[in-house]
Amino acid sequence: MEEFYRSFAQRARDLAENADPFTRRRLLDLAQRYDLKSRAGASGGRSIPPRATPPTVLFSGSGEAR
Questions:
Q1: Is there a smaller number of Cβ atoms within 10 Å at the N or the C end of the chain?
Q2: What does the alpha-carbon distance between residue 26 and residue 52 come to, in Å, rounded to a whole number?
Q3: Whole-angstrom Cα distance, residue 57 to residue 37?
Q4: Cα–chain-centroid distance for residue 1?
Q5: Which domain of life is it from (predicted)?
Q6: Is the pTM value of this prediction over 0.85?
Q7: Does residue 57 have a pLDDT over 70?
């Protein structure tokens, strides 16, 4: 998986060479994120923290249509 992210990072850098300034910055940021993922190994780069509060109830009542 590391090689997959490493190759995507290089591809983004290659595209950035011929891009306009806005797109270049976005592509280089993307390449940096892929580099971080490639170094993180099997963990996928980052973990998602657990929810601090339970989800709110969207619907209340009996659930029957009127």
A1: C
A2: 32
A3: 35
A4: 15
A5: Bacteria
A6: no
A7: no
